[in-house]
From TrEMBL:
Ranges where the AMP-dependent synthetase/ligase domain occurs: 14-94
Organism: Kutzneria viridogrisea
Domain of life assignment: Bacteria
Residues in the signal sequence: none
Membrane-spanning parts: none
Family matches, as Pfam families: AMP-binding (PF00501), Methyltransf_12 (PF08242)
Entry's Gene Ontology BP terms: methylation
Protein name: SAM-dependent methyltransferase
UniProt keyword list: Methyltransferase, Transferase
InterPro entries: AMP-dep_synth/lig_dom, ANL_N_sf, Methyltransf_12, SAM-dependent_MTases_sf
Alphabetized GO MF terms: methyltransferase activity
Annotated ranges, domain Methyltransferase type: 332-431
Length: 638
């Protein structure tokens, strides 16, 4: 037996049935069961469930009304070793159950045919006991036992363990990922999980035997909320509540969100999805992702730019080639979307992790990966927002990919936050590839996507000391079109790699490619920079960057092109191949004097669905307390 005289709740009920067999255990209107009757009926139903293949770690959804049958079913599922989830009959559960019980008659001959004697114990303390709706939080037997011994407070099981009567009409099946108990501990920590001084604000975490296991079937959400506990035994975890608090001098907690209650992302998402312009909503972290009603979306949407298939293929080839040049082995891709990069890069890697906010995208990609023998053993997919990195292994990845998804970020601050977090995930010397960015100096400000000035990365480097080099290059392309004119890629390198600065490379003034070729052949300089070259992609009489690359390759030079201070011009650096060393290049792009301009656009007011976002935000503020309103709303495709 456990330290309380019983290891699991069904044992406590069995003991109570032996002590007071005729005492009322559960009532609902005129219906009533004694402890002996409750225990006997639960034994019969448990045997029936076992005969259908249920057992430990299986899930039974109980779509039953508040009734004596519901209490019998809850106890029977525990006796079978499975876990239960109570859900309304007209609302499907969010988890995939092994069995749904929507009707139960205690006088059913099939049930009465089973013996009504107690079953052998079929659970361990860490076995799943039940799932709390609507999130599907998995509570284990040890958590429930500790909580009930401490408080006797659970509305179903608490009364049954101490001889009281459960009134089924009053049942509310709710819960929180941490049940108060004798061993419950709270921590106020900074972003590095270090305790903060009294009076200093920090994030509230909870740990102890009352901690839930996590969210059923949702490893990404579990990893984001249930993190390693640095103050407990090896393997112990704690729950990140999301509350901002500070300890008082008296030892209490002051909640800085004004309420002190955990924010339920599913509740927020449900309120957002109730807006008539929204089909679905998903809340991850502080960001609410909205799938708009297509009718509403069509009211504002502009015609997309037309792109020839050849240009799209070229765009993909250039992106994949730049990533593979980094020699990736352990990769994390933020926002893999349709898998255009994943499908071509992952076969070359040892391990490939991908995150995506859309559950539909996750499901489609998992199905595709399962059918590809090259990928099935090395690809791992997580559902989470770009700025949610809790649970991802720090120091593991040598390459992080943030490709076209950056265009959909809501602000420059969000982009900076994402890049700061993923740099921390890199092993020393690792690289972050930021792809398919667009230069705002060449486009009108009224754009639905985020535009990023090249100088943004010089400023980011000052903010993130771990970044040792910034390699910013124009997009490689033969065609001149929407996918090449304004676009560029950046590679950020984490400390731990040798860097070679290109800042002091001698500048050569040439008027055309013929003059450049003559100089390279006759002089054979080790390094040379072309500065302020008219860009043929943008002006009629300029030099084509791709032609320059072809010339350099033919003369055994490495070449890279980047932006100049004037947006219709570019710089290029050429290095003779015999002078290429083992380090990585830095200072290819040279920022000019800062003019005070904004380094990113503000896409939110100009999104095709900008008015919809304003309407949804107002709707959320009407229906929710202010502290529960997400800080950012993002429109995603369904």
């Amino acid at each position: 037996m456990g330290r309380y005289g019983w290891d699991c709740l069904q044992q406590a009920v069995q003991q109570q049935a032996a002590r007071t067999p005729h005492a009322p255990a559960v009532t609902c209107g005129a219906d009533q069961l004694s402890y002996a009757e409750l225990n006997a009926r639960a034994n019969q139903l448990a045997r029936h469930l076992l005969a259908s293949g249920l057992g430990p770690e299986r899930v039974v959804v109980l779509a039953l009304p508040r009734s004596v049958e519901l209490v019998v079913a809850l106890l029977a599922v525990l006796k079978s070793g499975a876990a239960s989830l109570v859900a309304p009959a007209d609302q499907p559960a969010e988890v995939r159950p092994d069995r749904v019980l929507s009707e139960l008659r205690l006088d059913d001959p099939g049930l009465l045919a089973h013996p009504d004697t107690d079953l052998p114990a079929r659970v361990l303390p860490r076995s799943a006991a039940y799932l709390v709706p609507p999130e599907g939080v998995v509570l284990e037997h040890s958590a429930l036992v500790d909580h009930l011994h401490w408080a006797r407070g659970h509305p179903i099981y608490g009364p049954l363990t101490c001889g009281d009567t459960v009134r089924a009409e009053e049942l509310e099946i709710t819960g929180w990922p941490v049940l108060p108990g004798a061993d419950t501990r709270v921590h106020v920590l900074d972003e590095r999980l270090r305790p903060v001084p009294v009076g200093t604000e920090g994030q509230l975490y909870a740990s102890g035997t009352g901690l839930a296991r996590g969210y059923h079937g949702r490893p990404a959400a579990t990893a984001a909320r249930f993190v390693a506990c640095p103050f407990g035994a090896p393997g112990e975890r704690m729950y990140r509540t999301g509350n901002l608090v500070r300890r008082t001098a008296e030892g209490g907690l002051e909640f800085l969100d004004g309420h002190g209650l955990p924010v339920d992302p599913h509740e927020v998402a449900a309120v957002a999805a109730a807006h008539p312009g929204v089909t679905r909503a998903l809340v991850l972290g502080s960001v609410c992702h909205l799938v708009p009603n297509e009718v509403v979306l069509g009211e504002f949407a502009a015609d997309p730019p037309l792109t020839e298939p050849e240009q799209t293929w070229e765009w993909q080839d250039a992106t994949v080639a730049r990533i593979l040049s980094l020699r990736p082995r352990r990769v994390l891709e933020i926002g893999f979307d349709g898998g255009l990069v994943l499908g071509r890069v992952a076969p070359h890697c040892e391990s490939y992790w991908g995150t995506e906010v859309s559950p539909e995208a996750i499901a489609r990609m998992r199905a595709a990966v399962a059918e590809d023998s090259r990928l099935a053993s090395k690809v791992e997919l997580w559902q989470q927002a770009a700025d949610e990195v809790d649970g991802l292994p720090a120091g593991f990845f040598d390459t992080v990919i943030v490709n076209a998804v950056a265009q959909r970020f809501p602000s420059g601050a969000y982009l900076a936050a994402v890049l700061t977090k993923v740099v921390a995930l890199l092993a020393p010397g690792g690289a972050v590839f930021v792809g398919d960015l667009r230069n705002p100096r060449l486009l009108p400000a009224e754009q639905p996507e985020l535009l990023v000035d090249p100088d943004f990365f010089a400023a980011l480097r000052e903010q993130v000391p771990d970044v040792d080099s910034v390699d910013l290059r124009l997009k490689r392309a033969v065609h001149h079109g929407e996918l090449s004119r304004c676009r560029y890629d950046v590679v950020l390198r984490k400390h731990g790699v040798d860097t070679v600065s290109l800042r002091e490379v001698p500048v050569l003034a040439v008027s055309d490619l013929g003059e450049l070729a003559e100089h390279l052949e006759l002089v054979r300089p080790a390094r040379v920079r072309l500065s302020g070259v008219d860009n043929r992609r943008l002006v009629d009489d300029g030099i084509d960057p791709e032609r320059l690359h072809e010339l350099a390759e033919g003369l055994e030079y490495w070449a890279a092109t980047t932006w100049s201070a004037r947006p219709d011009r570019f710089d290029a650096v050429l290095v003779a191949r015999e002078h290429l060393g083992p380090g990585v290049f830095d200072d290819l792009y040279l920022p000019g004097p800062h003019s005070g301009r904004e380094l990113t656009s503000d896409p939110m007011p100009w999104r095709p669905t900008g008015r919809l976002l304003d309407s949804v935000r107002a709707h959320l503020r009407r229906e929710l307390p202010e502290y529960m309103v997400p800080t950012t709303l993002v429109v995603v495709s369904g």
